[in-house]
Design a protein that fits this description.
Layout (H helix, E strand, L loop, with lengths): L2 E4 L2 E4 L12 E3 L30 H4 L3 E6 L15 E3 L7 E5 L12 E2 L4 E4 L5 E4 L6 E2 L3 E5 L4 H6 L5 E6 L2 H16 L1
Parallel strand pairs: 4-12
Antiparallel strand pairs: 1-2, 1-3, 4-11, 5-6, 5-12, 6-9, 7-10, 8-9, 8-11
Length: 187
């Protein structure tokens, strides 16, 4: 959520207000996500027509729950290490979101292999890195999991200091979630 200032008034997020040509408004930093979306109506609409958001997008409403499928080296780890909260580190960026709360150091050495956005790598010190859109396409760290495609937006909403939890699902559940996300976007 965030605060919007317009014409000396303070508006909270998820509210509608009229603006005229040339009006300026200020959107303050969000308190519950990393992004803010602004929508406005067409001036050709009938008088009194308003746009509104009926409910927060799932990427905001459930942003601290990240669903994953086991990664290509998940069998090298006890997945129960993911059954606790992690804290988003201040050292992450679009290359990778680093999580505080290592799962245990390892000495696994692997040849580099393809990686995708959402891959969760385990560094040698046991730290988790969720690869972002500017992340490498290959990597040699073991991959404990991959964020399901419908939750990638949630990873993008994370701010340093946020607490997140992982929920492991299977590939069929991930496909169902992706289909539901496509339907939601088409609304």
């Amino acid at each position: 959520s965030c605060t919007v200032r317009h014409r000396g008034l303070v508006h909270e997020s998820s509210c509608a207000f009229a603006v005229c040509s040339g009006d300026e408004f200020t959107v303050e930093a969000p308190t519950a996500s990393a992004r803010v979306y602004i929508a406005w109506g067409d001036t050709g609409r009938p008088p009194g027509w308003r746009m509104r958001l009926d409910e927060p997008p799932s990427s905001v409403a459930m942003r601290n729950q990240i669903r994953i499928v086991p990664g290509s080296q998940a069998s090298m780890f006890d997945l129960s290490v993911l059954d606790r909260p992690f804290i988003v580190s201040r050292t992450g960026n679009r290359v990778g979101v680093r999580l505080e709360g290592p799962i245990g150091a390892h000495s696994i050495e692997l040849p580099s292999e393809p990686s995708c956005v959402g891959t969760i790598q385990v560094s040698n010190d046991g730290g988790l890195i969720v690869l972002g859109p500017d992340g490498p396409t290959i990597g040699g760290y073991p991959k404990i999991g991959v964020v399901v495609s419908s939750d990638i937006g949630r990873v993008g909403q994370l701010q340093p200091g946020d607490e997140i939890r992982f929920s492991v699902c299977n590939i069929d559940e991930a496909r169902t979630l992706a289909g539901e996300a496509r339907q939601e976007l088409s609304k």
